[in-house]
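Weekly modeling sync, notes
Attendees: S.R. (lead), two postdocs, one rotation student

Agenda item 3: backlog of single-chain predictions. S.R. asked that every request posted to the team notebook include the full sequence so nobody has to chase files. The rotation student volunteered to paste the first one in as an example of the format we agreed on. Action items at the bottom.

Example entry:
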Amino acid sequence: MSRLVFITGASSGIGQALAARYARDGWRLALVARRTHEMQAWAQALGLPRQQWEVYGADVADIEAAVQAGRQCLARQGVPDVVIANAGISLGIDTAERDDLDVMAHTFAINVVGVAATFHPFVRPMVQRGHGRLVGIASVAGVRGLPGHGAYCASKAAAISYCESLRGELRGTGVRVVTLSPGYIATPLTARNRYGMPFLMQPATFADQAVHAIASGVSHRVIPWQMGIAARLLRVLPNALFDRLLVGRPRKHRHTQN
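Predicted structure, as returned to the notebook:
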């Protein structure tokens, strides 16, 4: 039987590009998102054999729904070889606005807790089998905080730390935890950004590089590599200089502006 990949947020952007890439390599797909009809239509339009894919409807902000999607996959398709926690949101916030605190909580529910809820059903089965990949999609934005982008930056920093913790816990089990930190990828999440996006990458190009990184079992990879260099420089930049560089930078759209 061909290998199986489980992907959340599979109805668009990075998730869909990863699904297409794995499908071309003959993998079976377990596709998870709220918009199940769109995923079904996409798989059919691509001409994928019906036995190659299954669709599971879930909002990963709902812990039980995310866990149930994983359990259904185990029951219908077996233990995946790769699980990719890709679902995520990105909205600007203003801490002075009360409604934006709810936006921040929702962002963490999807971008951090949703990652753990996605992984949860598969940890023990993978450990018992002795191999597997748990992949968390983080972001270069998790390296430093950007004005107006506090919810997203903080959630992605948390996702990086969470995956690092899990990697240590699973060391020696045969299960690898891989963290991928994309730079700017041309997806619906970035389409309305009102600031420059250096090294903007197409989703299919990202997917090609991501699949290779996952197969290698690398612990953390920034894609594209140019953003990896930028991330390392930003990490060591003195706060005073970092703050000066951001003067006048447009803020991320708030939820009321989307």
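Discussion: group reviewed the output briefly. The mean pLDDT is 91.
Action items: rotation student to repeat for the remaining queue; S.R. to check formatting next week.
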